[in-house]
Amino acid sequence: MANLKQLSELEGFFTPGHRMCAGCVAPVVVRQVAMAAGDTPVVVANATGCLEVASTIFPYTAWRCSWIHNAFENTAATLSGVETAYRALKKQGKITKDIKFIAFGGDGGTYDIGLQSLSGAMERGHNMVYICYDNGAYMNTGIQRSSATPQFADTTTSPAGKVIPGKVQWRKDLAAIMAAHNIPYVAQVAPSHFNDLIAKVQKALAVDGPAFINAMAPCPRGWRYDTREGIEMTRLAVETCYWPLYEVENGEWRLTYKPREKKPLVEWLKKQGRFRHLFTEENKPLLEEFQRRVDQEWEKLLKRCGEA
Amino acid sequence: MQERIALTGNEAMALAMKQINPDVVAAYPITPQTEIVQIFSNYVANGQVKTEFITVESEHSAMSATVGAAASGVRAMTATSSQGLALMWEVVYIAASNRLPIVMPVVNRALSGPINIHGDHSDTMGARDSGWIQIYSENTQEAYDNLIQAVRIAEHPDVLLPTMVMMDGFIISHAMENLYILSDQDVQKFVGEFKPHRPSLLDVDHPVTVGPLALYDYYMEFKRQQAEAMAGAKAVILEVAKEYGELTGRKYGLFDAYKLDDADLAIVVLSSTAGTARSVVDELREKGIKAGLLKLRVFRPFPYEELAQVLADRKAIAIMDRADSFSAFGGPLFTEVRAAMYDAKKRPPIVDYIYGLGGRDVNLDHIRKVYTDLAEIARTGEVTQVVNYLGVRE
Description:
Helix content of chain B: 40-55%
CATH superfamily of the largest domain in chain B: Thiamin diphosphate (ThDP)-binding fold, Pyr/PP domains
Largest sheet of chain B: 6 strands, mixed
Number of helices of chain A: 12
CATH architecture of chain A: 3-Layer(aba) Sandwich
Helix content of chain A: 25-40%
Oligomer: heterodimer
Strand content of chain A: 5-15%
Shape of chain A: globular
CATH superfamily of chain A: Thiamin diphosphate (ThDP)-binding fold, Pyr/PP domains
Radius of gyration of chain B: 21 Å
Largest interface: A-B, 47 and 42 residues
Radius of gyration of chain A: 19 Å
Number of domains of chain A: 1
Largest sheet of chain A: 8 strands, mixed
Distance between the termini of chain B: 52 Å
Strand content of chain B: 15-25%
Number of helices of chain B: 12
Structural class of chain B: alpha/beta
């Protein structure tokens, strides 16, 4: 693989002229995916969400590649249609080029409203890579909880109130759900670990059939961190084992990164305003509960990956 | 060369789809459309079409995938009914605004609730403002003919609007009738090779952004262009009908006027009820009553000028609505025809009959009653009840 310097010089299919917020990590994820794709021709489908609205305000577009937005919940179905049209034309000899198909959706468009469409497309076996840029809430509409929101996070629909301390439920394990579709490739990535991310996207693009990648993409508005620390947020999520890096290749689970020393969860939590209410004396048990659950999930993953 | 065979409405639609031979079909089964999907799956399984068939998990995904395929520069189709159309609603509008020439048979069925599987027009009437061309068919022959013509209409460079072709659920979809069919070659020749008129997603050397965000500074121009395309579709529909008529000997227009020229009493109707109404017209004519019928074929674009012209000289007009719009002012066909008549040189009394909801049978007696009411209105010049419900327990 090319080194970072070479990669950063790649023009890529996503230009810097978009209007995402300062400190948003979603465009960093897209840029790294573009680096992974290199010169391969791609068609991108984009779910309604921050990335879509901030990158294609008519008459401008930040996309150098062919790009389609249809609606919020139907990106996988839409790309199914594009990919099928490609197969039809290929069969008829009307297209000779090899084209890859990439979908981008936020956690709202992927975990929640678009889950059916995604499940259908994965089950049917379309040759596409679906990438969820997971910022852990409906950020585009103003930070409402999603099924990807971490437990205890303060969002506008799971506010940290006097009787309820933020989101009550644990996060949905979407990557496992995707793995249960028996698709050839599933992975979880973080842009702080760009080599890992790029290698996984390249694997995903190379497989014959559907691939799903869950990418952590922090949101400075929703998480309330210093805008300079977006990438640091993902690094800490990985180092605390809240967001482990792994892949599931043809059903084989494999950890792709194991922190030398597992950092305490609070190191990630304390940098984020959405968890501020946990740092009171009375909420101390919640912090402990949070850490215990992260430990459990980590152990579970280690077992799945044959590491424990 | 045409062959005369007996087919159900669904078989005829599926056959027309086979002969159109689209590149991509994405469809989900729903009563009473299910057979179309099943029959077409067989064509695919037996290699009788070149089509790539996407067995989507819902109608929402059916329309979404069809949009994706159509934006990729191929001929793409789907088919649905009722709740299926309701589920794809969101994307139905998006298909039109992206100017994608998708063709979709819709087998009319009542919308829930209560849940009902039989024919009425509440499903497609709800989609009347979605930006799709809407063509209604009386029988199996028309369903077949309309679907083939729809391809040419939708794909015409001056139009580029998706088109839905309707037939009544069960009454037509499941009833066997004789019809004339074209050879595969003739249909292929008529619809022609698909040529995308806009940049396609798969033309990766010329990337295109499809479906961007357009706010108050551009949204209205997008809508204005859609309106312009819809208005222009009228001429194309007639042009395609003329060419199809030359090929088949079957004439189509925006509507079909039956014994209307000198009629005092006129009924305006859509789809299969026209057959019943026509036989009542004949019966009344034998008795010397000047009854006439207007069967509307094209509901979108709405031929308001043409309607006003042929209806102005009637003494009383009844609109038959197989859907209610709950506007408290009658069904959709009524309100639109009545609005069209505002500019007519004469304004005869117009009444509405909402009938046949959820597939409730409409028989000769019902239509006779409507003409009897019209005769009374024509005689007295007075309307006692503008909006009427036909064949309902009050």
